[in-house]
Structure formats: C-alpha cells, structure tokens
Amino acid sequence: GDFARMEHKIIDFLSKLPPRPGLGIRIMFMNYIAQTQKRKTVENFIKEIKTHKEMEVDMLTAAQVWEARGEARGEARGEARGEARGEARGKLETAKDAVLEVLNLKFAEVPYLLEEKISYCDSLKELKKMLRKAILSKSLNELKF
Length: 145
Prior knowledge:
Elements lengths: L1 H15 L8 H12 L2 H12 L5 H28 L3 H20 L5 H8 L4 H13 L9
C-alpha cells in the first residue's frame, strides 16, 4: 500500500530527528503506525527500524514493548485455548473469524489494533454486536468497538 511505498522516506526522516527521553516523536509515530496499519506492515516496519542503529534509543523501546506484549498475549491466548476447549470455544473463534472476514471484504486495509481487539475479545455476545456493526458500517470510522 501507500505506507510500504513511503516506508524508507519515513525511516530516513525519523532517523534525522534527535532522540528524546520519554515519549518522543518517534515513539508517537510508532504508535500511530500500530493503530493504522495491518499487523504484517507493523512487523516489517519494526524489522526495518532495527537496522538503523541511530534510532535505537527510543524506537526500539517502543518496538520491544510491542513485541513483549505480543508474546504475553500469545502465551495467554494459548493457555485460554487449552482451558476453554469444546463447543463454546469453537463458537467464539468462528465469531471472531466472521467479524474479521466481513471487515476484510468491506475495507481493504483493516488496522492492526482493530484486528487485535477482535482477536482478544472473549465475549460471544460482544462479537455478535461487532459483526452487526461490521456489516452495517459504511466506513471504519463508524465502528465503535
């Protein structure tokens, strides 16, 4: 997409910014990317950032936080799957797949954090509401879940 075409220009620009302690412009930009881009785009961007040593100070901090969160969520998800076997778990996974399928069919680019929110939802009732909203919405901005 558009982000992939601009990725190297963005990284070049970010590498010229001076590092700042705390919540710097680079970290804020990484958060923006995580909220607006697909998972694969975010993962590729983090890999590319790691090749730029001049940005290690604050960019890798954000990347490492995301990676650690992802690992923790993956472990928690695996434990939950092991504990909650059976028909109820199957219905939950089917509902998540249905919501994601509708969003992917209607909107070519589904933001990473929206995919994550759906993936980690453990309420069949909430997933059914999400599915209805996904079907009826005309844009991603209309979705409030």
